[in-house]
Amino acid sequence: MIIYVETNFLMSIAKGQDSQAQELLQNTPSSLRIVVPSICFVESLTTLEQEEKYNLDFLGKLDIQINQAERDNSDNARLLLFRLEQSKTSFLERNNEVKERFDVAFNQLISKSEMITLSTGVFQETLNREIFDKHIIDRIILECIIFHAGLHLNENKSFLSSNSKEFGRREVIEVLRNSGIQYFNKTQNFLSWLQSQSN
Prior knowledge:
- Helix content is 69%, strand content 11%.
- By secondary structure, it is α/β, with parallel strands linked by helices.
């Protein structure tokens, strides 16, 4: 059985948002093949880099507020200073946890998954299909999955993505279904379905 995952699978593990995805990645059943478009690895690295820029911007603004509170001798300012410094410490600790979880999950996904490499055919289909007008990366991910599914017609195939805003759209689910792929927006839903298949 094939399970396709994309960038959000990795990012949800890194951010601590989906413990079941983490469990699935760490203890993948032998009957399950995890397949990932190669572009998702690049997208996850650029997403992490972009979030680091946002974090640095936030820390810069937090430091300004800390400096302002340090110069104010009032009781409220001292209390605020204490809480801001606590917040900064907690923020940095969480940020480090996210990076550690990302590194572990990234390496596990690379070692356990099959990669769908980009090809001329995938790019051509990306240009031909009128879907995801403003989200070219999502369009490439979808075409990679459809291309790969076409090479494995006789296998059960599922696509797990929490990005239901894009991949959960009716027209996308229809395209996936026409390629023999069942869509799941939550790891729990996929795991429940997987359990029902083995009964």
